Amino acid sequence: MAESTISVDGKEFKTPVLSGSTGPDVIDIRKLYGQTGVFTYDPGFTSTASCESGLTYIDGDAGVLLHRGYPIDQLAEKSSFMEVAYLLLNGELPSSDEYQKFTKTITRHTMVHEQLATFFRGFRRDAHPMAIMCGVVGALSAFYPDSTNINDPVERTISMHRLIAKMPTLAAMAYKYSIGQPFLFPDNSLSYTGNFLRMTFGVPAEDYVVDPVIESAMDKIFILHADHEQNASTSTVRLAGSSGANPFACVAAGIATLWGPAHGGANEAALNMLREIGTPDRIPEFIARAKNKDDPFRLMGFGHRVYKNFDPRAKVLSVAATEVLDKLGISDPVLDTARELEQFALKDDYFIERKLYPNVDFYSGVILSAIGFPTSMFTALFALARTVGWVAQWNEMIADPEQKIGRPRQLYTGPTQRDYVALENR
Ligand code: CMC
Fold first, then answer.
1. What kind and span of H or E run contains 285?
2. Which pTM was predicted?
């Protein structure tokens, strides 16, 4: 086994270098503090592996994303969201029987407790869907206490299935609530994605016919968002779960993290930005703002912590955006603005030097908008799909014998010890 030596104040610390199945090796520093009395410092975890995982692999320089070894572009083109969910949860693609059984199980868990509808009514009608999702997903733990024993693998599986199955129902309810329409019960005869579309866009007064073009585009978007290694929300789910918290509470924590504009909230921000730009002639103005360090504005949907060549998900979505708009007969000037903005930025030294490319959020909004979603729903759709990754990573962590409560250390820069001064003496 390879070894690394760290020297601290002349004291040598020898430690193993661990190799994964692919990707960079990692220096095992678990005993560093015990042996040398120092911590490592890595805000934002830019150089720190927080866990061992067999789910998803990213090579940011090569623009590669693999789920259990399978390239994302192959999965997006040939697979379905339910199949990818099975793959992430179980490690292998399902056989035909396994696939039928899995989809049936998920379908059977799509309804939510009637009392949850009352819970929704406590929100303002103009509440952001992510605010609602944070609340109602966390509240699921109160409705399903029978599946919160995290030490029982069967209960863990049931709660993972419940979460994957109920997210579309809850997301659709959040949408329906915001527009004042009645909630629709799930329809077990439809696919996972078709059912979600019906619960979102259908009304009880009429039959809803699922458009296969929309169903397939939506399913592709779900696949592309299913998991992404140890990103901020997934790390949050793992950290919350490391304390033994139940999975519904952990996923609620992940939803809260995803909401931020630097993470999942970027899809909403990217489309709002493209709409604000409006016409291609205004692109230089926005590019200049993105480059100006005194302006907090960033090009939303651009840049990534890991991808420094291209985001393979953005490639798939860029093609899908044209396909979907063509098939639906929609001509959206936002797509033209997006294409021109991309070309403009890719030729600009600022973006070239910093290796900033469109990410998954750059084109997804154009498709979601064409399907009919308001921008406020975009991040809720991301959360729906990412629930698969969150629960798979959470389950992997609980089953890992090396798992410990997550507890980072710090570099303390506050006052050193001092004596309390009584109020009258200050
Ligand atoms: N527009 C303008 N400049 C940027 C951008 C951007 N979108 N992204 C990074 N930079 C600059 C940044 O100012 C910095 O410049 P300098 O070296 O001169 O200080 C340099 O590029 C490196 O940026 P960083 O903030 O240190 O990089 P990071 O790895 O910490 O951040 C990021 C990654 C995704 C948060 C960031 O690129 C960003 O804020 N992008 C816009 C938001 C976005 O699209 N987020 C979605 C990410 S993908 C989906 C997801 O994760 O949910």
1. helix 283-291
2. 0.94
Could you say which of 67, 227, 304, 311 is catalytic?
Answer: 304
**Cβ of 275 less than 6 Å from ligand 1:** no
| Catalytic residue check, 304 | yes
pLDDT digits (tens, 9 = 90+) for 125-165: 999 999 999 999 999 999 998 888 999 999 999 999 999 99
Q: Write the pLDDT tens digit of every residue in 38-72.
A: 999 999 999 999 999 999 999 999 999 999 999 99
Is 361 catalytic? The answer is yes
Cβ-in-10-Å burial (0-12, 13-18, 19+) of 43 comes to exposed
What string of DSSP letters covers 158-186? HHHHHHHHHHHHHHHHHHHHHHTPPP---
Confidence of residue 332 (pLDDT cuts 50, 70, 90): confident
For the CA of 302, the closest atom of ligand 1 is: 7
Per-residue CA distances from 319 to 73, 172, 323, 363 (Å): 11, 27, 6, 9
How far, in Å, from the CA of 211 to the mean position of ligand 1? 36
Please indicate whether residue 264, judged by its CB atom, sits closer than 6 Å to ligand 1. Answer: yes
Q: Whose CA is nearest to atom 11 of ligand 1?
A: 354
Q: Is the CB of 361 under 6 A from ligand 1?
A: yes
